[in-house]
Write a structure and sequence with these properties.
Elements lengths: L1 E6 L3 H12 L4 E7 L2 H11 L3 E5 L7 H10 L7 E6 L4 H10 L3 E4 L4 H12 L4 E2 L1 H14 L11 E6 L5 E6 L7
């Protein structure tokens, strides 16, 4: 059974998520919190498998609460998924730096939402598809261009005296390898 804690300052949102998740086989909502401080307290008390954490809540926000959960060695098995209506890159990066295992926007399809809970509970990590596309684009723009062919210089292969096979590579001296 996957034990889930919901943390969102909007009671109606929590109720909707709870109804969706409680209707699933193998998932149980074990607690609900209206702010980050209450979420951290309930996580320490209930030790859920997954916390669905709103990013923007009054008082202690979801990112600060996620950092507290991630820093507590006793909660190492608790996985946090950040939920938000905002697909802002700075939220995504900060959520990952804070220790979140996932980042979902609240307009995620219900079936994908339930699958996300299962993936994270099973040890995986996930990002909303739009976020994933942007992160891949950002990564690709920062990646070093591939080395040109022949960077190794010369590759030689041949029989080794006394038996066996020998492969040697000659690297350029200009430091380009």
């Amino acid at each position: 059974m996957i034990r889930v804690l919901l943390a969102d300052d909007q009671a109606l949102v929590r109720a909707g998520f709870a109804a969706l998740l409680d209707a699933q086989d193998g998932i149980e909502v074990v607690g609900q919190a209206a702010d980050g401080a209450d979420a951290v307290r309930l996580v320490r008390e209930l030790t859920p498998d997954v916390v669905l954490m709103d990013i923007r809540m009054p008082g202690t926000d979801g990112l600060a609460a996620t950092r507290q959960i991630a820093a507590d060695e006793r909660l190492a098995g608790v996985r946090v998924v950040i939920l938000t209506t905002f697909e802002l890159d700075e939220y995504v990066f900060e959520a990952i730096r804070s220790g979140a295992a996932g980042f979902l926007v609240k307009d995620t399809d219900p079936d994908e939402f339930v699958q996300a809970v299962r993936v994270v509970a099973d040890g995986g990590a996930l990002l909303s598809p739009g976020v994933t596309r942007r992160l891949i684009g950002e990564f690709a723009s920062r990646a070093k261009p591939p080395q040109p062919a022949g960077v190794l210089g010369e590759l030689n292969a041949g029989p080794r005296p006394g038996g066996g096979f020998r492969v040697t590579a000659t690297l350029p001296l200009d430091g380009s390898a």
